[in-house]
Amino acid sequence: MLTETYDVLIIGSGHSGGMAAKILTEYGIRCIMLNAGPVADVTRDAQHKHAYELPYRGFRPPGQIEHVFQSNGFNANVWVDEREVPYTSKEDQPYNWVRVRLFGGRSLFWSRQSFRLSDYEFKAKSHDGFGEDWPISHADLAPYYSRVEGILRVMGAQDGVPQLPNGNFIPDDAPWTLALQRFIEVTKPRGIPVCKQRRALGRDGLASSVNLLLPDAEATGKLTSVANAVVRELTVDKNTGLPNGCNFVDRLTHREMSVKARAVVLAAGTLESTRILLNSNLANSSGVVGRYLMDQVYGPGVLASVPQARRGNINAWMGSAAIVPRFRNITSKTDKFLRGYAINTTASVEAVPARNFALYGAELQRKLDEYFGSGFYMTIMGEVLGRYENHVRINKDRKDAWGIPVLHVDTKYTDNEFNMAKDAVDTACELADAAGFEILSKNDKPNPPGYSIHEVGTCRMGDDPKKSVLNRFSQSHDHKNLFVVDGAQFTSAGWQNPTTTILALSMRASEYLAGEMMRQNI
Amino acid sequence: MRRRDFVRAVLAVGAAPKLLLGQQAAAPPPPPAPVPWLLGLNAKTPMPQVAAAEEVAAAQLRFFSTQQMATLARLSDVLMPPVGEKPGALQARTPMFLDFLIGSSSGDRQKLYSSGLEWLNGESKKKYNTEFARLTDQQAGELLKPWMRTWLNDHPPTEEHADFVNIVHDDIRTATVNSREWSAAPEKGREPRTEEELYWSPIQPDLSPQSGRALSVQPHVQAVPPSKHRIPSYQR
User: Fold this and answer.
1) Do residue A443 and residue B152 have CB atoms under 8 angstroms apart?
2) Does residue A509 share a domain with residue A497?
3) How many domains does chain B have?
4) Is B98 contained in some domain?
5) Best interface-test mutation with B: which of A13, A79, A355, A366 has the largest number of B CBs within 10 A?
6) How many CB atoms lie within 10 A of CB A484?
7) Which residue of B has its CA nearest to A203?
8) What is the predicted pLDDT for the residue at B41?
9) Is the reported ipTM for this assembly greater than 0.90?
């Protein structure tokens, strides 16, 4: 069956691939989707357990996923095993590549924060002179954002802040709790906006491609999906020079297989899509495939305690969460760094972690009892600048379990990111002090690049084929039937979680591809 | 199969049709021996009750030296003694668990523990002229408290000695709270709870990097039956 030629080959089944499958099949286009990992069946593969029933009492199994700080003994088996699919980096430049190859990819596990980029991101170079503008603006993407927000069922408020555009939201009109009211009192005179969180409600507790996108594609009867298909490289038609499918390896049997298609959509996740392109020697006349790797600074933050909420006085004071959108370099300019950061703010009703007290034993437990439910978290999401030297390339000396050359990640943060992190922590401390909250602990050191799981860039879009890999429709400048619809296409990172933008871009690119195929331009 | 058994089996098979004709209303007879090997297990098969090895057997020290383990045991008792109804680290067998965990961990982690325990014991000898394992709670506290720090997740102190003291404290707490002993003890106040979550087993783990089994796995079809779960259809 796999010897026939499909209309479109989609590589990857996460949000970007799922959206491509939904849009294309709804246009009647026959698609084949390959996913490198298996289908996760929660009824077969998962069960509730206590930590003591696990091999390492809930600790992350040593050696398996050393770079996945988010992992623990419960979820260790959902991430890509680094012994199976390794990658390399310099010892003094660690990179945390956090991967999921289950069907649905990382759309199965995400925080669901759903923010639009604004023209402070799309036209960033015009604003501050650094990097490149995107070839599109918020107005180009706005209709797609609205449709994506409808599918994800994003709850939020129309805050009317230019750096955080309004959207198609399920209204969040819940009142702020007292801790957030107190916080807003001190941010307002400083010109720092505080907005309601914007979070995808999804359906049945999930906002993934497997429940929101793929069912629509499957209902058309036009989608064929294959699990455990690890793509080795794209294949090329010798006559036209255009990609015409791919070679892949069956994950379990190591059988070498291939599929043919008239067009190829890469949606394997930023760095896997780029790895496939680099291993295929395609789409790189610009020389920038793999270049301008970006993400967001995570790790710096402050934990304070709200005194009024201690000793069990939680209900009126705690429980809200807010987003402080970027406020630096919007209407004023700081000389410490370009761009800016957001602050995720949570008035938690949970226990304050023990590490926030320099105590132990019974004395520590008394403190934990007293401070229970009074934790006020402020953590940053800071924009990382796109730099040519921050890149990935193929490491020809190392191969994965299927003999496919691995990626070498060569990236590091600069003073711009470090200064941004320090400013964020200083500001959060100032706000906590002003609000009368007690600062328990703080950190201004970023986690290693990649930790945010918001890696973007490496196949950036632009109008100039000499400086970019893709055009404004996520289409390769070099090969008209090749599209990259995941985070690889980002021209700048922004501070926002990228998922909503990835979905909107994939929807837009897929509708363009469908039109081009129906007009027989592809 | 012995010849006598084989003959008995052949006779039984030969007699079966005649017997069936005479007993059409009765339950079908049991299948003739030998039965197919692997078809006996079914959903009604009782599940044997088994204990976790850790509950009933002594673990062997495999990473720390005897001296280091003595220091770690005392340190565990000082940092996480029994509080209220909840067991302390010693009752939760945390030191031996950490021997297992750290023995499997990266070289950096192993070095942090080994050198940290050696340093702590050395400090004890310098200040009190005795092993750390023999210190009173107050003496141990005098050594440890100057190194206690506050810190955010993923960012423990990097200062020498403070890194060891705070990381080992965090590990001792996690291992103790996540023990069966802690979970079984009654909850009186706002003590931390043993983590209980959805545990994901290895998902189609045929390709195991630790073994050479990967290439000998029998090919099998990976298609998922489309009807296994209801496909949701949402109003939009």
Assistant:
1) yes
2) yes
3) 2
4) yes
5) A355
6) 33
7) B234
8) 81
9) yes
